[in-house]
Every structure is written in C-alpha cells, then in structure tokens.
Design a protein that fits this description.
The complex is a heterodimer of chains A (82) and B (363). Chain A has 82 residues and is of the alpha+beta class. Chain A has helices at 13-26, 38-43, 67-81, and strands spanning 2-6, 31-35, 51-54, 57-61. Chain A has 3 helices and 4 strands. The radius of gyration of chain A is 12 Å and the shape is globular. Chain B has helices at residues 2-14, 17-52, 60-89, 95-102, 107-117, 128-137, 142-154, 157-167, 169-192, 201-212, 227-262, 265-272, 279-287, 294-306, 311-323, 326-333, 338-362, and one strand spanning 219-220. Chain B is globular and about 70 Å long.
C-alpha cells in the first residue's frame, strides 16, 4: 500500500512523522511517498496541505490527524486490500 | 457502508459523557484567567516603570519601557485569543467548503462573499496556490478568486483583533470595511481585463485534462473531525502562529518602543502626517517590499500613531506591508504570468492609497 503525504512550504514535517508512527504501530506494510509537486496535489483534489492519502483515499486535508485515527485508517485500508 | 460506520464510531467515541462538561468548563476557566491578566496589564506596566524603576513619567526611557511592557503582552494575549478562536473556526471553514459556497455565484455577490470569507481564513503565502487552482478548477471566475486573495491577508483576524484591542471597534470596523471594499473592487477590475490570458499554460492544461477524465479511482473523503480535534486545532494554531510571529512581534514592539520613546514628533508628523498629499503614496511604496505579518507591524504602527502620524497614512502603510509579500508573489508566478501579477500588486497598492486618503479625510 502507498501512503502519500502532500506538503508545501508551510511545514508538514509533522504529518510525515505521524504517518510513520502510525505505520509502525499498525504493522501494516506501507510505503510513504512525499509529494510536493503542485500538479500532483491538484490531481488529488487537495486544496490545503499537509494532506494525507492512504491507498486511493484522501483521509485528511489541511491538518494532521491523530496517530490513533491514522492507525485505524491504515488497518481498514489494509483489510480492504486483502 | 464502511465509511458511514466509521464516521459514526469516530463521532460517538469522541466524547465520553464524563468529559462533555469538562471541556466547556476548562475553556471557560482559561477565558476567565485570560481576562483578568489582560485587564491588569496597563496598571502593572505603569507600576513597574514609574514606581519600581522610578523613571519620570515624561521621560523618553520611561515612555519606551512602559510601552514595551504593556504592549508586548497585550498584543501577544490578543493574538493568542484570536488565533485560538480562528483555529477552531477554520475546521468548519475548510477550503472545500468555501469553494462550494462560491461555485456558481454571480459576479458581484460572489466577490462580496469571497471578500467576507477571506477574513476568518488563515493564510500563508504558499497556501494561496493550491487554493487558487482549486477555485479555478471548479469554475470560479478569476475575478472572484482574486477578491479572496486580496482580502485574505489584509483583512485577517489578527489585524482586526489588534486594531480592536488597541484602537477600538470603530477603527477596526472601518478597516475591515475598507479592506473588503478594496478586495471586491479589485476582483471586479481584474475580471474586466480577461485574466484567463495570463494563466500559465500548464494550469490551463491541468484544467482540460481534469475535465476530460473524471478520475473514478481517487476518492477525496477526509475523516470527520470530532470536537476534540477542533479544539486541538485551535491549540496547534496558537502554537504555530506564535512560533512564526514571536520574533516579528518582539522586534516590532522593540522598534515600536524605540520610535515611541525617541523619535521626534516633528519627524513623524512630517513624513507620516496628512498635510502633504504625497505622504500616503510614499508610505505605500515604502511598505510594498517590506513584509511582516499583522502582528509584527501593528506595534510599529501604534508607535507612529502616538507620535502624531495620521491614521490614514499609517493604515495605508500597514495594508501595503501585509497585503503583498514577495514569497507569495513568487509562488503565484508559478501559475499566473507577470502582467497579471503586476496588476494584482498595482491594485493592492492603489487600494491602500485610497484607503489612506479616505481615513485621513474622515478622521
């Protein structure tokens, strides 16, 4: 599974940390990609960063969700994929 | 089905019954503490400067120190309060929601709504671009988008809170009204010059590509926020804002204190007064290349005013400092071509000049 973190110049580093931690806790196998290309951000219909996309779903835009919420989302996405 | 279940679970888990009262109570207590500290600031600074340090009331140093001690915390406390409230509010006013409010609006009402929505929307120069593109993509005219872009940094919550706290509601309201009028008119003017010509080609391509293949695999479905999340967003925003502005703020206040204590009245009223017609445009031109957030500029402004600068000239200076930032322009350059950027800058500058003249004429 691919988890994308969309960032721009206004920080977003803590989004990456949160995602990494959630992946570690959930034990889900996922690859983290950091996206800064504007065209790509637009394609995902995102208007504010940081944003997080798990699999094909944008789960947060303009904020960093709690790690426990991310863990839940990761588990769900993994279950859906399996 | 899955998604609905998850939303319900997240929503009900969020607030166990015991905590339902704890949160409002906590907020109320903090509010009360905030209020009592706030009203003590002026007496404390007078006591500290004139009693404890024993400085003469009319001395330069005394004036500067009293200003620094009363105003640094005052401005900081107002910023904390307001960014907190805005941090919570903005979890309701997401860009997606603003966009859906603006889609399909006719020209004038659309511009007015855009200018209004610019007020509580937090803004940093780089968030402008995804927003700009997102608006464009859903068919919102460039004129209306520009109204939003002009209003957003100038009529922001920090500026309004500070103006209110330091000069009262009349000046704050007048400033907001003028700022929004400027945004509305600016947007209308830009719409007249066929701004579509000045979009970068990749932006136009992006639009075409998007309308051709509506992606089906991708879903934009952020998880719902609980009240806890919203409250936390307030705290986060306060922390981030303070981290971002404290240097400006302290620097601004120190500079303000120096001006307040040492700059001769004649000099200020000569350059920032309203006697000569060129004072306002010069103040605006000086302000354009400077960039600071509202929180950094306002202490300086306050010092100028107390030294006899005219309000209109000073506010025009402030609008031009916070309304245009070089980083924002560099980011905008990625999506729009130079002519439109120059027009954008020109309109913001001209608008600030007009605001300056109006204020000078009225007050």
């Amino acid at each position: 599974m691919v988890v994308k973190v969309f960032m721009s110049c206004c920080g977003g580093g803590n989004a990456v940390d949160a995602v990494n931690e959630a992946i570690k806790i959930s034990g889900v196998e996922a690859k983290v990609e950091i996206v800064t290309d504007l065209a790509e951000v637009m394609k995902a219909k995102i208007m504010s960063t940081p944003a997080i996309k798990i699999g094909s779903r944008v789960v947060a835009s303009g904020r960093v969700p709690k790690v426990q919420d991310l863990v839940k989302l990761l588990n769900e996405a993994a279950a859906k994929e399996a | 089905m899955d998604i609905i279940d998850e939303k319900q679970i997240l929503a009900t888990n969020a607030m166990p019954p015991k905590r339902r009262y704890a949160l409002p109570l906590k907020l109320f207590t903090y509010g009360l503490i905030w209020y009592f500290v706030y009203i003590q600031l002026d007496p404390f600074s007078n006591w500290f400067t004139y009693k404890l340090l024993g400085l003469a009331v009319d001395s330069h140093l005394g004036g500067a120190i009293a200003f620094f001690i009363a105003d640094a915390p005052k401005v900081l406390m107002l910023v904390v309060l307001i960014t907190y409230v805005v941090g919570v509010t903005r979890t309701f006013l997401t860009p997606e929601r603003i966009r859906s409010m603006l889609v399909g609006r006719r020209e004038l009402p659309g511009n007015i709504l855009a200018a209004l929505l610019g007020v509580p929307t937090p803004f940093c120069s780089c968030s402008a671009i995804p927003l700009f593109l997102g608006f464009l993509e859903s068919g919102i005219p460039i004129g209306i988008t520009m109204s939003f872009l002009i209003s957003c940094p100038v009529v922001n919550e920090v500026a309004l809170a500070l103006l209110y706290g330091l000069y009262g509601w009349k000046i704050a309201t007048l400033y907001a009204l003028m700022g929004m009028t400027k945004a509305v008119i600016g947007g209308l003017v830009i719409a007249r010059i066929h701004p579509e010509r000045f979009l970068e080609s990749w932006v136009a391509e992006l639009q075409i590509r998007d309308s051709e293949n509506e992606s089906t695999e991708e879903e934009f479905d952020p998880i719902p926020l609980t009240w806890d999340d919203r409250i936390e967003s307030g705290t986060t925003m306060v922390r981030e804002t303070l981290a971002g502005i404290w240097l400006y703020l302290v620097g601004g206040i120190a500079l303000g204190a120096a001006i307040y204590g040492y700059m001769p009245v004649d000099m200020v009223s000569n350059y920032m007064g309203k006697e000569a017609w060129w004072n306002v445009p010069i103040a605006v031109l000086l302000g354009l290349p400077l960039y600071a957030s509202a929180a950094g500029v306002i202490p300086i402004i306050q010092a100028f005013l107390s030294k006899g600068a005219a309000l209109g000239t000073t506010l025009a200076f402030m609008m031009s400092v916070i309304g245009i930032s070089i980083p924002e322009l560099i980011m905008l350059r990625k999506v729009i071509k130079l002519p439109l950027i120059s027009i954008f800058v020109g309109i913001v500058a001209l608008g600030s000049v007009i605001v300056g003249y109006v204020f000078n004429a009225l007050i």
